[in-house]
Design a protein that fits this description.
With about 50 residues, the chain is an all-alpha fold. The protein is built from 1 helix and no strands. It starts with a helix and ends in a 21-residue tail after the last helix.
């Protein structure tokens, strides 16, 4: 019975860690960047500033 209980606890702990890691990765993916995404180089197109 002790081995069965240990196996069940190990599986439950592994599943809980997998779920926690998934939520952590999703939180990092959805995080907003610290800086605005502005281009470093811009090119003028015809019609601008005329």
């Amino acid at each position: 019975m002790n081995r069965l209980l240990a196996a069940v606890l190990c599986a439950a702990t592994g599943a809980a860690l997998a779920v926690a890691a998934t939520f952590g990765v999703l939180a990092l993916i959805n995080a907003t960047p610290d800086q605005p995404n502005t281009p470093l180089v811009t090119y003028e197109t015809p019609g601008q500033g005329q």
